[in-house]
């Protein structure tokens, strides 16, 4: 008998029928002889709807009240799931995050879990209940309801799996796992069977959003193995683990795409100490985080400095930097939102040469111009024109041999 934590995302509990299907799955897991803890997200669209309502009440709602409000989304979905299990002849009880023993700091809307006292969950499991926990929330030591940041139910599931020393953690979602590339852009992409935590983190940062990054970081820190899989299918998904032997043989695990990018170039920045500091202090002063930063070596006493940031932050960045450009003596600023980022990710890069060469050559052959390049130990990212992203993705995916062999089931192309 194993203890299994299963997390169901918003679309998996998106309506009454889907909640019933989740309930059936929970009962089946229990009938297979396992102890089951289910972490439930708010029904699809509910969190966004509540945020919208809050904004109608106040332009800047109190974060304390926002947490109290948003936590109800997960609570209702959990209670409904428990009702469905019970109606189908199973035995379930639902708990709020607080009742489940999840204690956080007091930072409303992005609280960190400080510890979990799962006593009540364990007692209920011992009484043979399927225990359903409202995701995304906890309680501060002062007793205030807190939430864990958008997508936080993933973190609830991973943290509970760690605290309960669960045998497995399954993250059920509306895709069948993590793919080598976005299947809408590259139809030949395939599901990845096994991925290292670090690869998943880089791919999330590069725009492949299957899991909340904080949840993956937590899993890495505490060695919680988990599987991302489809909630409506009986198929194995993608298993995330520490690096296993053989994983490094694959040079590139996947290609991530991110269209939410904007690029700013400050031209003719004087080549003297303090200029970069002034530019990025101004941005961090209004809480803007930047992604890639590239500065050229100067041979003429001035240099160009480029960086990327999220499209949503573009207008504010332009406004903040406008006056600063002349203040520091730069010659001008060029800013555009028509860019996208493509990243190749793989821990195998650490031990294989020629990855950059292969990426750049394939982009060159596809006629795609590279605007910026940045690298980490296990990732190479390029910024390109947004309109060229599809072509670039298909060329890169093919160049690294990621395409799945086509089977009969795929039908004609
Ligand atoms: N309902 C929350 C959100 O939409 C948390 C979650 O779904 O994980 O961000
Ligand atoms: Mg989610």
What does this structure look like?
This protein is 33% helix and 27% strand. The protein has 413 residues and is an alpha/beta fold. An 8-stranded mixed beta sheet has the order 3-6-2-1-9-11-12-10, with helices on both faces. It has a 6-stranded antiparallel beta sheet with strand order 14-15-13-16-18-17. The longest helix has 25 residues, at 63-87. The chain is globular. The two termini are 45 Å apart. The model is unreliable at 408-413 (pLDDT under 50). Bound molecules: aspartic acid and magnesium ion. The site of aspartic acid has 12 residues, from helix 5.
Q: Keyphrases for this structure?
A:
11 helices, binds aspartic acid, eight-stranded mixed sheet, 413 residues, disordered C terminus, six-stranded antiparallel sheet, globular, single chain, alpha/beta
């Amino acid at each position: 008998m194993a203890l299994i934590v299963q997390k169901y995302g918003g679309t998996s509990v998106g309506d009454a029928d889907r909640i019933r299907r989740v309930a059936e799955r929970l009962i089946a897991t229990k009938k297979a002889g396992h102890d089951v803890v289910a972490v439930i997200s708010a029904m699809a669209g509910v969190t966004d709807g509540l945020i919208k309502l809050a904004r109608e009440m106040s332009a800047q709602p109190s974060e304390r009240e926002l947490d109290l409000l948003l936590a109800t989304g997960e609570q209702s979905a959990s209670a409904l799931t428990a009702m469905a299990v019970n109606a189908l002849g199973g035995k379930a009880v639902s708990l709020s995050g607080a009742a489940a023993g999840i204690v956080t700091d007091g930072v409303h809307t992005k609280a960190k879990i400080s510890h979990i006292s799962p006593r009540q969950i364990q007692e209920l499991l011992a009484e043979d209940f399927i225990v359903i926990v409202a995701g995304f929330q906890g309680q501060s030591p002062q007793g205030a309801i807190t939430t864990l940041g958008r997508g936080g139910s993933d973190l609830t599931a991973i943290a509970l799996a760690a605290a309960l020393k669960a045998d497995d953690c399954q993250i059920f979602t509306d895709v069948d796992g993590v793919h080598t590339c976005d299947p809408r852009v590259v139809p030949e992409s395939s599901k990845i069977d096994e991925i290292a935590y670090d690869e998943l983190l880089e791919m999330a940062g590069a725009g492949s959003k299957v899991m909340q990054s904080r949840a993956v970081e937590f899993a890495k820190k505490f060695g919680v193995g988990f599987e991302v899989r489809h909630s409506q299918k009986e198929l194995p998904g993608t298993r995330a683990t520490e690096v296993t032997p053989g994983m490094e043989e694959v040079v590139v695990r996947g290609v991530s795409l991110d269209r939410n990018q904007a690029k700013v170039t400050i031209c003719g920045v004087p080549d003297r100490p303090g200029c970069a500091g002034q530019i990025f202090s101004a941005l961090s002063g209004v809480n803007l985080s930047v992604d890639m930063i590239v500065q050229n070596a100067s041979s003429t006493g001035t240099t160009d400095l480029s960086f990327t940031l999220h499209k949503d932050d573009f207008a504010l960045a332009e406004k903040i930097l406008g006056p600063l450009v002349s203040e520091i003596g730069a010659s001008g600023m060029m800013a555009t939102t028509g860019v996208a980022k493509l990243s190749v990710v793989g821990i195998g890069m650490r031990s294989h040469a020629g990855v950059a060469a292969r990426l750049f050559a394939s982009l060159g052959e596809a006629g795609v111009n590279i605007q910026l390049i940045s690298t980490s130990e296990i990732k190479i990212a390029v910024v390109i024109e947004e309109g060229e992203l599809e072509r670039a993705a298909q060329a890169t995916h093919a160049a690294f041999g990621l395409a799945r062999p086509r089977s009969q089931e795929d039908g004609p192309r």
